[in-house]
Amino acid sequence: FNPTTTITYDIAQHSFVRLSVYDLLGKQISTLVNEEKRPGKYEVIWDASDFPSGIYYYRLKAGNNLLSGNMILLK
What we know:
The structure is a single chain. By secondary structure, this protein is mainly β. It is built from no helices and 6 strands. The strands form 2 sheets. The protein has a 4-stranded antiparallel sheet with strand order 3-2-5-6, with no helix packed on it. A two-stranded antiparallel sheet has the order 1-4. The termini are close together.
């Protein structure tokens, strides 16, 4: 992506949701969501225009569920 990407996720039950982005070294560089969410489908746009090209990871924690994925930023 360059320079924005959309992360979509579904919540099955009312939960506290935390969506964070990490660099390749595992350092947290951004928190995109940090709040209670009702069941439903959500989209979050991450603007990485201030970050260098590279591989980034996101981590989504909703209640007891944990999901992670990677993204490649090419400028």
